[in-house]
Write a structure and sequence with these properties.
Blueprint (H helix, E strand, L loop, with lengths): L1 H6 L4 H11 L5 H11 L5 H11 L10 H11 L5 H12 L4 H11 L5 H12 L4 H12 L5
Length: 145
């Protein structure tokens, strides 16, 4: 083998592939794919996916039941059910249910429950129990810890 390389010859294993390349032939395993590409054909396993994509469809293995329903509604120009209620309320100028109670209280001049206890103690002039202890120490002249 070393003698062949020093003389400039290639081993027999490589001869057939080199000869085919010199004659501009491609190996058999490449011919079918090249012919299909030259004639603008796609391999069989790609045809179905391409046809579906060109037709605006999604392959079955990607679609769940929900996706099918959402896609059908979007194609028909409708919005999915889970979006309708919020969108309709916003277009009508209404607020969602979870905001209604707070807004009603604010419009009526009331404060939410979380703030009521603090406001009540301030209106009465009392200080919360935690602050009473610190104020008593300050009056006596001790520093709070």
């Amino acid at each position: 083998m070393l003698e062949k390389l020093s003389v400039g010859e290639t081993p027999r294993l490589r001869n057939s592939a080199l000869e085919k390349l010199r004659v501009e032939e491609t190996p058999r395993w490449r011919n079918s794919a090249l012919e299909k590409l030259l004639f603008e054909e796609t391999p069989g396993w790609r045809n179905s996916a391409l046809e579906k994509l060109r037709g605006g469809e999604i392959p079955c293995w990607r679609k769940s039941v929900l996706e099918k329903r959402v896609l059908e509604k979007l194609r028909a120009g409708e919005t999915p059910c889970w979006r309708n209620s919020a969108l309709e309320k916003l277009h009508a100028g209404e607020t969602p249910r979870w905001r209604n109670s707070t807004l009603e209280k604010l419009h009526a001049g009331e404060t939410p429950h979380l703030r009521n206890s603090a406001l009540d103690t301030l209106r009465v002039g009392e200080t919360p129990p935690l602050r009473n202890f610190a104020l008593e120490k300050l009056r006596v002249g001790e520093s709070p810890r």
